[in-house]
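Same chain as my last thread, 423 residues:
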Amino acid sequence: MHLVYQQGFRNHVSTEAIPGTLPQGQNAPQHPSLGLYTEQLSLSAFTVPRQHNLHSWLYRRQPSVSTHAPQILCDYPYFLSANPSSAPISPEPLRWNPYPFASTPIHWLNSLYTYVTAGDVSLRQGGAIHLYACNRSMEQHIFYNTDGDLLILPETGALLIETELGRMRVAPGEMAMIPRGIMLRVQLLDQEARGYVVENYGQPWQLPELGPIGANGLANVRDFDIPVAWVEEAQTPCTIITKLNGHFWQKKLEQSPFNVVAWHGTAYPYRYDFAKFNTLGSISFDHPDPSIFTVLTSPSAHIGIANLDLILFPPRWLVAEHTFRPPYFHRNVMNEFMGLICGRYEAKQEGFLPGGASLHNRLTAHGPDIDAFKLASTETLKPKYIADTLAFMVEGSLLWHPTSMVMTSPQLQTKYAACWQGF
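reply #2:
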């Protein structure tokens, strides 16, 4: 057998098994030749410096998603990894239907239901993602979390979040950030409320650097709302619940701790309206990486690799030419948890519902389902506005561990991978 090699180390290499199959410039068709499928393989975070960015575009006969099938645990007793988890994490893609409302009264804190965790709360790395579905206010229960900052993203039902530093009304399409250690109480402004909570164990959230984007774009500093000082007048007894290193403690107080009359500084809660996010995208060709949609980032010790990123997919125009516009098939080293606030996500025609969730851990193949692929491969590419959509992704560098609760939950879609059959 005669082998042919190209020389170079981390140079950009182009190669074809069948001549003419690599798209060239902007003569590339909307769908590659020979009925191939386009897939990007990312072995580094999207935003690491150019010289460290490891990714390749693959043109395949079938996308990797078509190889999904039920998997069972097996054992290679001599092939070990450092600090293996006691609970094996399946490489299968996972998706859940919306978390249901309770038939009995339950407040926000009691309704929190953990879907995934990552990292180590004691080392301040990683985070957790929870869902809530409640039907009454917390009233005289007050909570503070020493383990991490809380991002609250309502999916249905508006909330009044009362904190030591002020009050915020947060509705679907908005988010609130409560720093670790700040006391809060969640009151309902509607009969029921459901949504997502992202708990960040790591470095505080910050706006991403804009780099070549320049001074303007994405989330702007002026669009974040900071509550004004507020004092609770009623001095009724209350119960304080504290979360410390994953454990909960409670105590009784004879009067409200919401007694901060004035404050100044740089540590405070804030609210952000996703409608103010200045979405950027391609106005010529190609689908940009999801890092272009980053609202907030929690950096890690490694430059260009986030502990957590909050990424938003809001209503926006699609105008790219010569391009498959929805997210391409992909496998990457980051770990992706997605939720849907409203409408439909452009890469899924069925099954991904508001209040639901999906999980694609490290290098798990995913992308558009077969119906979304067929539609996007054949539609006439005219400027199109996606109006009815608001999805988000929490992307992290550490593996998301699904809890045993969600892996045995009736909301788990056992046939999720079937959406990719038929390619």
